[in-house]
Amino acid sequence: MTPTADRPAAHPGLLRVATYNIHKGVQGLGPARRLEIHNLGLAVEQLDADIVCLQEVRRLNRREARYFERWPAVPQAEYLAPEGYEAVYRTNAYTRHGEHGNALLTRWPVVAHQHEDISDHRFEQRGLLHVEVEVHGRRVHAIVVHLGLVPGSRVRQVGQLQRFIEREVPRGAPLVVAGDFNDWGTQIQRMLASFGLREYTDARPALTYPARLPLAQLDHVYVRGLEPLGLHVPRGRIWWRMSDHLPLIAEFRL
Fold first, then answer.
1. What digits encode the pLDDT tens for the residues 144-190?
2. Which of 11, 68, 159, 209 is most enclosed, with most CB atoms within 10 A?
């Protein structure tokens, strides 16, 4: 199986993965808030990734749809998918005006997908999105996560993630776990390493949050069964205006 003809394949030995918390496609507060989903559509295409993992993606929001004249007529995941990509979305949180969750966009065929609720308490609705993709003839498992704000919750959610992987991902299959981990330290990194997930490490930190003046790397791409080759964080005004996070791009050898 191959990507669509108008979206050429990347190097057959490489996998390019991006993760991006898009802040529901809107920036600012109150009357000053602005719609950024159109710019985000262009940005996602510029990432040129085989797999794009997105967090805080709106399926619908009736209030914002009334407020913004140019609100897209389709769910955000579908709107953001470049031509030739397939979009998979699953809801994490239901709100008064709509719902939002995680999404995965891929230029490669989707074989299967599922969602698991990993909410730890009633004040935060969280979930993981698991998508199996066929890349260069190989089955790659990708899990999109958005962990909680409470440190204890994140620890328990990583425990849930580990049990999910043990149950749903074959031991020898290439695995990508990407998203917003909301962790300002190294505890989550150490926990993930304990069951074989690692990321590219460099002397220079890949800071992604807050976008305007990044102080921490909250966004990560961890893998098992793939060789990490490098990380890149796009910077500049055009990027920090679109979301409170910067995107993270990681490359791996299959």
1. 999 999 999 999 999 999 999 999 999 999 999 999 999 999 999 99
2. 209
On whether the CB atoms of residues 15 and 254 are closer than 8 A, the answer is yes
Overall pTM > 0.90: yes
